[in-house]
């Protein structure tokens, strides 16, 4: 599987990285050796396993090289604002004429259409507009700022990958490619489906934070502070897990059958908080890990890789990136028969230009001429 990725930031390179992790040949078309993103964006991390070619897309020769690559590919990924690829001359209409089987994957924040399509935005904005950020509100407090992965990576990159996969499967039957419009707001909204069902279909979720007892006063689904200032999480939603939690915390006087009597929650939550503050995070790990109370410690990015469970599953890998060891998450998911290979560090801009051009029929003299005329780097 060959994928052409037009260099950008955000979810597009992450999607390309995941495809490269799984064995796809991902060719990154970059604009020049002094591409602006190289100075401030962690391109090496998200471009692991890819091949890089630097082309001058304003020159006829550079554009023709890009076309040859597109014609040789199964899919294309781009993450620009709507209309940019069209202005470059590589929009879906032009591409479909020269590569009718190619799947054209586009990922943006607001989508290809709509009043906000041309507006700038970031993860925080997409999560806000979909209503998802408001679900984190507690009485008298502002919404919680989520990490910049909910919109960009989960709502954008993952839905782009899902769309490309579906479109490629369909292309095997029809022989025709199509455009995948992956908007981060679409993905974030789709992931909130359960909350919408709880709100409009079941009446469990309220827009008023003060009425969302489950989020605000639940003693069994919360983050609690330990004696050492670190935190643990409890998520004993089901009755059998809740009963075990009460037993582990020594709350033998609490009737587990009253778990969802919300009037009991504030006082019980205070008791649970006091109990948790009596021990350190390590002590709670020793007591609760591996049980069915639905427990996990809140770990830092530094500490997470060394947790025994994460270490045993090789959740993180160490890569040599430009002479330095860099820890990165391992490829996911896991496959029983065709496991992902050990990730390779990202290539430097234009590092694979000659090999990539040769793969679409350019000879050594032609490549030298392109370099001499600065059509590639």
UniProtKB/TrEMBL annotation:
Gene3D superfamilies linked to this entry: Crotonobetainyl-coa:carnitine coa-transferase, domain 1, formyl-coa transferase, domain 3
Can you tell which superkingdom this protein's organism belongs to? Answer: Bacteria
Query: What's one GO MF term for it?
Result: transferase activity
The segments labelled Disordered in the record are 326-350
List the coiled-coil residues. none
Q: Which InterPro entries match?
A: CoA-transferase_III, CoA-Trfase_fam_III, CoA-Trfase_III_dom3_sf, CoA-Trfase_III_dom_1_sf
Sorted UniProt keywords: Transferase
Question: SUPFAM superfamilies, from UniProt?
Answer: CoA-transferase family III (CaiB/BaiF)
PANTHER family per UniProt: ALPHA-METHYLACYL-COA RACEMASE, SUCCINYL-COA--D-CITRAMALATE COA-TRANSFERASE
What is this protein called in UniProt? CoA transferase
């Amino acid at each position: 599987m060959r994928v052409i990725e037009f260099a950008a930031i955000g979810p597009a390179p992450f999607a390309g990285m995941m495809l490269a992790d799984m064995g796809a040949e991902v060719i990154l078309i970059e604009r020049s050796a002094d591409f602006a993103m190289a100075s401030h964006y962690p391109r090496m991390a998200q471009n692991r396993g890819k091949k890089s070619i630097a082309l001058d897309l304003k020159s006829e020769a550079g554009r023709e090289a890009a076309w040859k690559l597109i014609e040789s590919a199964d899919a294309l990924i781009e993450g620009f604002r709507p209309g940019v690829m069209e202005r470059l001359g590589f929009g879906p209409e032009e591409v479909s004429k020269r590569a009718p089987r190619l799947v054209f994957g586009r990922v943006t924040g607001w989508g290809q259409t709509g009043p906000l399509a041309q507006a700038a935005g970031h993860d925080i904005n997409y999560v806000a507009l979909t209503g998802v950020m408001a679900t984190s509100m507690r009485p008298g407090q502002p919404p919680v700022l989520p990490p910049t992965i909910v919109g960009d990576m989960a709502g954008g990159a993952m839905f782009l990958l899902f769309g490309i996969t579906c479109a490629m499967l369909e292309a095997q039957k029809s022989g025709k490619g199509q455009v995948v419009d992956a908007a981060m707001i679409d993905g974030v909204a789709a992931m909130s489906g359960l909350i919408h069902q709880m709100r409009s279909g079941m009446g469990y979720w309220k827009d008023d934070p003060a009425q969302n007892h489950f989020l605000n006063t639940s003693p069994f689904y919360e983050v609690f502070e330990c004696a050492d200032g670190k935190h643990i999480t409890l998520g004993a939603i089901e009755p059998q897990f809740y009963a075990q939690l009460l037993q582990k915390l020594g709350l033998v006087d609490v009737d587990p059958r009253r778990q969802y009597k919300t009037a009991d929650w504030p006082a019980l939550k205070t008791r649970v908080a006091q109990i948790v503050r009596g021990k350190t995070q390590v002590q709670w790990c020793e007591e609760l890990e591996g049980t069915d109370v639905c427990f996990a410690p809140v770990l830092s990015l530094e500490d997470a890789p060394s947790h025994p469970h994460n270490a045993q599953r090789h959740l993180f890998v160490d890569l040599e990136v430009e002479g330095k060891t860099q820890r990165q998450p391992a490829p996911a998911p896991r496959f029983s028969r065709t496991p992902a290979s050990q990730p390779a560090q990202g290539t430097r801009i234009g590092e694979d230009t000659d090999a990539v051009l040769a793969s679409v029929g350019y000879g050594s003299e032609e490549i030298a001429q392109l370099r001499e005329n600065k059509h590639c780097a």
